[in-house]
């Protein structure tokens, strides 16, 4: 997977396999397994309200765990529109799908 660091330089890395989970108290994000016994990945923190930290942990886990299936759905939809000869007539939709795929790849 390609990521960009703060200096906007592309770097290649392999992320921790999914699914990820978060602890019931929302304090930690783990690899799949029995929290808190899985591999600890992230501890959301900061000077934010506790409810926001928990919501952020849940949002991160949901985004990570669904990323690959959403990318695949975008790829299939785009290809289907092209196969149906609707790339030009559905240019806005195709453009949105292409932009989503670029963002998902970190471009």
Descriptive notes:
With 107 residues, this protein is α+β, with helices and mostly antiparallel strands. The protein has one domain. Helices cover 45% and strands 14% of the residues. The strands form 2 sheets. The protein has a 3-stranded antiparallel β-sheet with strand order 3-4-5, with helices on one face. A two-stranded antiparallel sheet has the order 1-2. The longest helix has 34 residues. The radius of gyration is 18 Å and the shape is elongated. The chain starts with a strand and ends with a helix. The N terminus is likely disordered.
Widest sheet: strand order?
Answer: 3-4-5
Query: Residue-averaged pLDDT, rounded?
Result: 80
| General form | elongated
Q: Tell me the major beta sheet.
A: 3 strands, antiparallel
| Low-pLDDT segments | 1-12
The N- and C-terminal alpha carbons lie at a distance of: 11 Å
Order of helices and strands: EEEEEHH
Helix fraction bin = 40-55%
List the helices and strands and how they pair.
Layout: E1 2-4, E2 10-12, E3 20-22, E4 29-31, E5 40-42, H1 50-83, H2 91-104
Antiparallel strand pairs: 1-2, 3-4, 4-5
Features:
alpha+beta; three-stranded antiparallel sheet; 107 residues
Task: Compose a concise summary of this entry.
With 107 residues, this protein is of the alpha+beta class. The protein is 45% helix and 14% strand.
């Amino acid at each position: 997977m390609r990521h960009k660091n703060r200096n906007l330089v592309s770097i290649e890395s392999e992320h921790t396999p999914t699914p990820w989970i978060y602890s019931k108290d929302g304090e930690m994000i783990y690899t799949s397994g029995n929290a808190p016994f899985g591999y600890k990945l992230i501890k959301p923190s900061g000077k934010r309200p506790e409810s926001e930290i928990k919501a952020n942990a849940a949002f991160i886990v949901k985004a990570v765990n669904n990323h690959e299936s959403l990318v695949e759905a975008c790829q299939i939809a785009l290809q289907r529109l092209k196969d149906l000869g609707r790339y030009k007539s559905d240019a806005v939709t195709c453009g949105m799908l292409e932009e989503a795929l670029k963002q998902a790849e970190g471009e």
